[in-house]
Amino acid sequence: MIYFFDGSKDAFLTAFLLAYRDEDALLTTGNHQLALGQKSIFVRANTEKARRCAARLTELDARCMHDLSLLLRSGEPERGQIAFCYFRLIAARQRPIRGELAEEAVLRAKECIRRVTFEVHRLKGFVRFLECASGALYAPISPDHDICDLLLPHFRSRLPEIPFAIHDIRRSKAAVWDGGHTFVAPLERAEIVLSVNETGWQDLWRQYYASVNIPSRRRLRQMKGYMPVRYWKFMPENPSAAIGDLIRETNAALSGSPDAAPHLRGSVQ
In which domain, by residue range, is 214 found? Predict the structure, then answer.
């Protein structure tokens, strides 16, 4: 049986209860081709069942709900099944299992969580804010995982006096600090007016990057390992300029993409 759910925690826990004793269960949030004779069901979240399931699992492992939150944020297409196998093993063993790396279910869950937390760490250094005419800051991002709200505490502590929005272009949502509160809101498209100083700030980024770059000592593989190409499109220093024709290839690949940069007109409220 294939159990489809909407990706939320309550829907996953509801599906987990239904699928726990099904040896052939597959939990997924996306499209899946049904095999001949295979059945499927779309599981809607049941808040009360999810609450009871979470309470029981937390008795077995106090940190497991935190693990679940990270697993469901993953951009991995099989995240639902990875989480299901991991939590079914917790329930079967009646104890925490995160250290039992000989188990494939644990290893896959651990690696999935690692990729999510590592991208949060990376984007703390790769997010580039644009200064708007209103004084607010705006940063477009397109992460592999659903993490824009996990960046809020870091930037709120760094910029406590300045409102800002971190816009996940891929998922059409934004994490916002308005100077007094943080929240996440749907945002299909942003239209902003840049401040008169923004061009100068971007020029400073480019000057800094040019001053530390040593063309005669290029290490392209190492460079892309520390700063993956998929993050470059929102960086004013434009690292692709350091490696010649790649800038044209990158820009061509991005044209028409749903992750393209937002229109820089209109206003940020």
Answer: 127-269
